[in-house]
Amino acid sequence: MTQDTNASAVSLPGRGLLDGRVALVTGGARGLGLAIAQALAREGSRVVISDLDADALEQAVSGFRSAGQEVTAVTGNVAVVADCECMVRAAVDTYGRLDVLVNNAGGSAHTPPKLEDVTEEDYDKVMNWNVRGTFFCTKVALPALKAQGGSIINLTSMSGRTGAEIFSPQYSAAKAAIIGLTRNMAMHLGPNGIRVNAIAPGFVRAGERAEAIWATRDNTTILNQIALRRRGVETELADVALFLASEQSRYMTGCILDVNGGYLTF
């Protein structure tokens, strides 16, 4: 049976798993980044969210404050090291520490899906947004994270695991690089009490643009390759990020968690 109905987006009452902690979520103004930031805040974390879209940041901040949660917003581009420094500085200057870094910002940057159509500019844009951003946000955050240990959560993709035609080569290359970065960083930073893990999402119900693209194609084959026969919802991935941010995952590092409804079992 093939289906693609919405899963229940359940928000459980906070249990204080992150009381006293401070988290920085890049690309945190909307979509998965916002869902992750909301999950962390619900568990007591003070949150810094960064994004390129100032209007989306303003709207997100309003939602956090309406819920009585502490949040700081920074407009910036993770591909620019000076902007990464501003993001980390906002956390340390405002809240005095940084415990959790979620390297969520990234994507295909609306670049062509076919290799023959990809320009140098397209390639650089995707690599900078995904790999450079993850690398330098982590580097800049290290002094603050080393002060008391912490958790780094990188967002990769199942496209870094499989060469399916639906993924562009430049995007797959970037996400595969993040898998390698995650494992290497885990080895380097473990002695400092810093855990580094990654989430590899599968097909997730996302923003309006992604839904519009999904609606234009026959996705029966894709759904039949997902064991659960549906796409995920953002809160299901946010729950995994919360687990990795908390002490519940304290003996996990260097792990790549596939959250894809069983897509890679085929």
List keywords for this structure.
single chain; 266 residues; alpha/beta; Rossmann fold; 9 strands; 16% strand
Describe the structure.
The protein is an alpha/beta fold and 266 residues long. The protein has one domain: Rossmann fold, CATH 3.40.50.720. The protein has helices spanning 31-42, 54-66, 81-95, 120-146, 169-189, 208-215, 220-224, 234-245; strands spanning 22-26, 46-51, 71-75, 100-103, 150-155, 194-201, 204-205, 232-233, 256-259. The strands form two sheets. A seven-stranded parallel sheet has the order 3-2-1-4-5-6-9, with helices on both faces. It has a two-stranded parallel ribbon with strand order 7-8. β4, α4 and β5 form a beta-alpha-beta unit. α3 (81-95) runs parallel beside α4 and α4 (120-146) runs parallel beside α5 (169-189). The longest helix is centred in the middle third of the chain and has 27 residues, at 120-146. The protein starts with 21 loop residues before the first strand and ends in a 7-residue tail after the last strand. The model has no long low-confidence stretch (mean pLDDT 93).
Overview in brief:
This protein is α/β, with parallel strands linked by helices.
What is the multimeric organization of the chains shown?
single chain
The backbone outline, from C-alpha atoms, is: globular
The fourth-level CATH homologous superfamily is NAD(P)-binding Rossmann-like Domain
| Average of the residue pLDDT scores | 93
If you consult CATH, what is the topology? Rossmann fold
**Overall tally of domains:** 1
* CATH A-level architecture: 3-Layer(aba) Sandwich
Lateral strand order in the biggest sheet: 3-2-1-4-5-6-9
CATH C-level category: Alpha Beta
Uncertain stretches: none
Strand content: 15-25%
What is the alpha-carbon Rg in Å?
Answer: 18 Å
Write the H/E string, N to C: EHEHEHEHEHEEHHEHE
Helix-and-strand structural type = alpha/beta
Count every beta strand, where a strand is a DSSP E run of 2 or more residues.
9
DSSP helix fraction: 40-55%
Terminus-to-terminus distance: 16 Å
**How many alpha or pi helices?**
8
How is the biggest beta sheet arranged?
7 strands, parallel
